[in-house]
Amino acid sequence: MPQPIDQFAARLPADKRASVYQSTKTTHEKRTRLLFDQFGDPDRLRRLAGDIKQHAIENLDTYLPQVEQRLRASGAQVHWASTGQAACEAVLRIMRDRGATRMVKAKTMVSEEIELAHFLEGHGLEAVETDLGEFIVQIDDDHPSHIVRPIIHKNRREIATSFEREGLGAYNDDPATITRRARHHLRHKYLAADVGLTGANFVSAESGRVVLVTNEGNSRFCLAATRCHIVLVGIEKIVPRDRDLAVLLNLLGRSGTAQDLTVYTEFIGGPRRVGQPDGPEEMHVIFVDNGRTEVLASDCREILRCIRCGACLNVCPIYRQASGHAYRSVYPGPVGAVLSPLLMGERFPQKADLPKASSLCGACHEVCPVNIPIPDLLLRLRARAKEENVPSPGSPPMGPWALIAAQPAAWKAALAGGRIINHLPVKLIPVPALQAWAAKRSLPEWRGGEFRKWMKARQRPSA
Amino acid sequence: MLNAERAPVTGRKVQLMATCLCDAFYDDVAAATVEVLEHLGVEVVFPEGQTCCGQPAFNGGDWAASRKVVRHTVRTFAGEDPVVIPSASCAAMLFHGAVLEFEREADAAEVSALGRRTWELADFIVNGLGVKTWPGRYEARVALHRSCHSRGTETVPAAQALLGSIAGLSLVEFGEAEQCCGFGGTFAVTFPHLSSAMGELKLEHVRAVAPDEYVSPDMSCMMHLGGLAQAEGKPIRARHLAQVLRDALKGGPRS
Fold first, then answer.
1. A-chain residue closest to B43, CA distance
2. Is the pLDDT of residue A320 over 90?
3. A195: left (phi over 0), alpha (psi -120 to 50) or beta
4. Whether B61 and A386 lie within 8 Å, measured CB to CB
5. Contact assessment for residue A338 and residue A331, using Cβ atoms and an 8 Å cutoff
6. What CATH number is attached to the domain comprising B243?
7. Which of A246, B41, B180, B238 could form a disulfide linkage to B222, CB 3.0–4.6 angstroms apart?
8. DSSP assignments along A138-194, one per residue
9. Are B119 and B85 in contact (CB under 8 A)?
10. Which residue of B has its CA nearest to A387?
11. Which of A156-161's residues contact partners 24+ apart within 8 Å by CB, and which partners?
């Protein structure tokens, strides 16, 4: 039986696949041109960025206390959340303490990960997504299908229908109109909100600066009218020094959206200070673990280098065919196939199939701006699934094969015996792997042992 | 996935790992490999006890099973002579994959040592032996398949250099050459839809430039793509690099 992601991909409507394919392909190709046109050796830059992030995650015990100290010195309050639940509760507490009921949110993957918006809604609080893609996901009660482009799976006709349903105007699928309507709707939300929540792309341990990149400027709006800024950030987002940002920001925009730099890059040094004309008077930074220290302790810790650019999704032949929802996770694609099962903790078996959905082609490693050896990590997780005896329907058993392949006599017998496939119709041979192969492809003629005969004759021409 | 710490080649004797696919299906590819190496004055030894590099179980996550096979391979290819393989995939298994699955094993050093003298064929000819051009003649428009295990290795530039230097042969480029063909070992049978969809896309790109032959450093990808094309009733002429090099010495493509 095919694996779940294969079944999902087979059912995906052709127009959805085509639009995901086209847009990922275009971004990937533009990204590659940009990097190679502008940098002599982009691969060296990727390795440097990988080294910086690897150093950071391996020294979190130094950098986290340092960043806490810097943030407090600049007037921000720091919270530590070991679980997603704890992070949600921290946000709730901050809002209740202020008597706040309305939040505007910029795009943050960690808030998706801990399902913050649903949690707050459950407590009667409003949490409005202000990134256009995330806003559409929210009104449709859908899930993002890409790290950077949450609605890569939707076309403008679907969006226009949703807008009409939500009372945002009569059906109109012109992108400029859709954007104008969203802007108009959100403008009122910004003005009415008490709290603005953002993520952080990086936090510098040296200065305590929170670095945020967006293209829509919505994170600025989130902070323009609100009195309280909450930053929700995974503990792995620390970089040691401000100057490391020169390397990482140069790679993030180019790798993610094929831009030299995103339209907005913000460096936030704390809440509003005396003499500053505006900005939130209160700032909270919530550092979220939610399984990350466990990942750090594992043999897949390199995945914590990830800067969420989405380049691995864009280049991945599986993602292009299956789209993001196939991965049943907040983080799809190659990075998600590693990170999502790891973040499951003890429920790892539920997502142990994700690392198998790869031909191990290595394209993800080749484009990763922080040089994560994703195929090696996928392999390690496959080995873990096997060690934990997670069932894997359809996977050929390797024990019998290994017995034959470790015994030359058995191997030679198998080479001779394989000839049966030349004489029997495949459907009569009860080997599931062979059936699965032959459903789409013809088999070459079995010529087991022929080379060995040829070689022997060559070595002893007289015999 | 560069095999960076490789020992320089000094002698003119190699051990051939034919690969399980050539052992079972593609005997002519293994024979061509022998003839190509002998043309270069290399003595080719074929260790009879060889079976497989261990990659199927490694990729399947059954590392205990894979290590059994790798240990057998390490014993079979003992000695100091380079091991030459007409497959970027099996070569990468020995210099990268096996090293990964032996990280915490007592005999990791022996496995790494085998990896350091393991070569994919084109890489061996160009970077091991220092042969940069190929003689003979081969009248054909050839598209070169980039097998994924040659990604980031010296195999692709080596194969391009050799093929590009053959009189009469012209290399044709095609779209999205860096994309996987969808074979992926057991992936081809556990993800049959994705695997064949990826293969179709590859075939589309290759057919768009209508090469006379589609040439690969790996037969695994060709087994998948050739099989897909055959089943559709639109076969492609898929060949291994070694066959082209050998046939160039004999004056051109075999009909």
1. A459
2. yes
3. beta
4. yes
5. no
6. 3.40.50
7. B238
8. HHTT---SSSS-TTTT--HHHHHHHHHHTTSSS----HHHHHHHHHHHHHHHHHH-S
9. yes
10. B62
11. none
Residue B77 sits at the chain A interface (C-beta within 8 Å): no
Task: Report yes or no on B6 lying in a domain.
Answer: no
Query: DSSP 3-state assignment of A430?
Result: coil
Q: Which residues on chain A are in Cβ contact (under 8 Å) with B228?
A: 440-441
- Distance between CA atoms of residues B243 and B62, nearest Å: 34
Count of pairs with CB atoms under 8 A, one residue in A, one in B? 211
Cβ neighbors of A95 (< 8 A, separation 6 or more) are A101, A103, A120, A125, A194, A195
Range of the domain at B225: 132-249
Given A267, A290, A313, the domain boundary residue is A290
Contact A361 B186 (CB under 8 A): no
Asked if A402 and B52 count as a contact pair (C-beta separation under 8 A), the reply is no
Out of B111, B127, B143, a domain closes at: B127
Structural domain count of chain A:
2
Q: Tell whether A30 is covered by a domain.
A: no
Domain ends where: A266, A290, A314? A290
Structure confidence at residue A463 (pLDDT):
44
CA–CA dist A159, A148 (Å, integer): 18
Mutate to test the interface with B, among A25, A388, A401, A419 (most CBs of B within 10 A): A401
Whether residue B89 is found in the same domain as residue B146: no
Tell me the C-alpha distance between B168 and B56, whole Å.
38
Amino acid, single-letter form, for residue A97: D
Taking CB atoms and an 8 Å limit, are B191 and A5 in contact across chains? Answer: yes
Contact check, Cβ <8 Å, B192/A440: yes
Whole-number pLDDT of residue B2: 59
> What residues of chain B lie within 8 A of the CB of A26, using their CB?
none
Mean pLDDT for the stretch of residues B99-123? 97
> Which residues have C-beta within 8 Å of that of residue A336, sequence separation ≥ 6?
A324, A327, A329, A330, A354
Looking at CA atoms only, how far is residue B154 from chain A in angstroms? 15
Q: Which of B72, B190, B218 best probes binding to A when mutated, by most A CB atoms within 10 angstroms?
A: B190
pLDDT at B1: 57
With respect to residue A111, please indicate whether it lies within any of the assigned structural domains: yes
pLDDT surpasses 60 at B120: yes
- Residues A405, B52: C-beta atoms closer than 8 Å: yes
Residue A178 domain-assigned? yes
| Residue contact B18–A376, C-beta within 8 A | no
Distance separating alpha carbons of residues A292 and B134, to the nearest angstrom: 53
Q: How far apart are CA B227 and CA B199, in angstroms?
A: 10
- Asked if the structure places residue A198 within a domain, the reply is yes
> What is the value of ipTM here, to two decimals?
0.97
Instruction: Classify B14 as helix, strand or coil.
Output: strand
Number of domains into which chain B is organized: 2
Structure tokens at B77: 């290819």
Query: Are the C-beta atoms of residues A286 and A82 closer than 8 Å to each other?
Result: no
| B169-228 residue pLDDT tens | 999 999 999 999 999 999 999 999 999 999 999 999 999 999 999 999 999 999 999 999
User: CB distance A359–B198 less than 8 Å?
Assistant: yes
> Using one digit for the tens of pLDDT, what is the confidence trace for A61-106?
999 999 999 999 999 999 999 999 999 999 999 999 999 999 999 9
What gap in Å lies between CA A386 and CA A398, rounded to an integer? 11
